[in-house]
Structures are given as structure tokens and as C-alpha cells.
Amino acid sequence: MGKEEQLLESWRELTPEKQQMVLEFVETLKSQSKTTAINKEYIPQTPLAKKLWEIRKQAIASGIKLLNEAEIEQELAERRGGYSES
Length: 86
Hints:
Low-confidence stretches: none
Strand content: under 5%
């Protein structure tokens, strides 16, 4: 039995609440690998960039989910009363 089959079999035995916890954990793992890749590539040069980068790292460490471009646009639209550019 392959890893995918083992995972699926175990998944089916979990309660819906625990399945949600697994999904959240997987998202955390995915986020960490993206962050690790970015950390290796990006080195802030200016004092402001260093400060912002540190704030970003603290936010990630606290569990805050970072938004992608589409999610930022959606949040702005919601905050501005539903306006969005198409």
C-alpha cells in the first residue's frame, strides 16, 4: 500500500473535526515550505525592509495566514462595500 492509500485510509477513520485539523496542519506545512524558500532567496537591504521582514516572520510564526494577491483584492473589496475591479 502506497503512502497516498495509507493517508486516505487513515483520513476516512477520522471525525470531521479531526479532518479539519489535518487540513489546517497541511496548510501550515505548505506555508512553511513556501516561507523557507522565500527566506533563502530574499535578504532585506534597507532598514525599513529589515523591519517589515521581521514583522512578516513574526506574523507567520504566530499562525497568521498570509494573503495572496487575489485574497488581498477580495478583502479590500469587502472593506470598501463590495467594489472590485474586474
